[in-house]
Amino acid sequence: MNATPDRSLLGWFRFLFSRVLFPGQPDVNTGVRRGPLLIVLLLPAAILYPTLGFHLLEPDEGRYAQIPKEMLAHHSWVVPTLQGEPYLDKPPLMYWLVALSYRAFGVSPESARLVPAVCVHLTILAVYLIGRRSLGERAAFWAALLLSVAPGFVCVARLLLLDGLLTLCVTMSVLCGFEAVRTGWLKPAWWIAAAVASGLGFLTKGPISEVLLFVPLWAFGFLTRRDDGGRTKEESETTPSMPARRASFIVHPLWYVLFFAIVVAVNVPWYVAIYREQPQFLGHFFWQHNVMRFLQPFDHLQPIWFYGPILIAGLLPGTILLVAYLYQLLRGGSEVAATRSLAGGFWLLTGLWCVFFFSCSGSKLPTYILPAYPFLCLAVGEFIARTRWNGAISTRAMIGVMAALVLFLHHYAMPWYAQERSPYGRPELVERFVDNPDTTVLCFPRNCDSLAFYKDRSDMHNVRTRDVNQMFVDCHHRPKTVILFTHYESLEGLRQILPPSLEIVETVTLKRKNGNPVLDKLFGSTPWGLCDVAVVVPKNLPAGAE
After folding, report:
1. Backbone angles phi, psi at 472, to 5 degrees
2. Do 107 and 56 form a contact (C-beta atoms < 8 A)?
3. I want to staple 190 with a disulfide (CB 3.0 to 4.6 A). Which of 97, 109, 170, 180 is the partner?
4. Is 0.85 surpassed by the pTM of this model?
């Protein structure tokens, strides 16, 4: 006998989500087809792998190439270092993987970027191979295609950043977590796989992977819970592809204990080791770089709508199809509503949660939103597969045009842009200043790590503005000091405060002369991370100074 319908506001939300917006059943055809699998293997490979050797971009790529290089050179696998100093901003999984790539293929930008490129490819494959279980094969294939050509995903996530690896971990965790509970009866193997992926995400960038998994999973379980108890076990066994009505609410608390025990097991060896070596790391990382950066940001301040334009451009051509999908969703109608399954609703909910969560953070960068792309593509993939867009020439044309554009960006535009913006883009200007390992090279006021990477140096220390007086003192005891100025006005500012006992005997500027203001704004009037080079010498070198 059915229970009395829930007429509360919360009950209305459940009714709206599961009976009005997403009342349909997913496609039961989940078998892998050879042709689509080959496309998902070959198209991303053609986009991602051929052009990984372009110049490192400052500041992030230079930093994340240099840290694993120092880790490998000094055999320091516990404490990451940058220019010989502990670098405690992030956990080490990305550094470990890049260092292993260096060991296997040699130290180069190609081997460094191979790690995020493989992460992007594995994310696309996971969307297809695991996503098909909840949505059907055709929907998952469209989702993987959209993800393969989305410029905001493939062009950005393959850069040497932490976000490509984090996106893979989050995607695997959510895909496996939903697969574990979507039938209403927990599948232990999928649950454990979700926990391992979540633990690796924690080891990449902290607890963000758990936040992006459990909030949409619990919300989905709440929205699909029925007062009559949902499906019976017999219904689940006879129609296993049908998504759960109770989702995570049927998970026993002991399974959550196991989940977090696995996350702890993956992370605790390194966290214990780093605490023994650098006790300040835990407070610095968890409080400063997670809690405070979210609640009271100290950098990357952006408005709440910051990710709107980024998604509009970055998800193309999926943006056009997402608008059509949302229009259909709001228009209503029982016939079109029957094409939308609860699983598709979950992927839309998860993608929107990612966007909402990062929009609420005061500290924002375009790369933070990368985990939303796979889930939004899964939702749009079901829309394409079950509507007229599936057979439309325009769908294939949009994907083909975007694939050609992304190939152009990767093969021509990005290498050119990277050379223009790299501190090592014109090596003849800077090599002679940094080639001699006996010459002290300082970076003021920020690091220039890509130049250190190319010149095989780990002693190009950074001098902050607050330490400039000590820098002047040290310059008196060296025959010469090379200073790399990483801000546009830094050289002129230093000229004004340089003590009379020091003098600048040579300068080189990397600033473009007589540049077009529009192009300067778009491409920069100087390389990223290096504006000027100066040689400072003491006027009267103390006796015995070297």
Report:
1. -60, -40
2. no
3. 180
4. yes
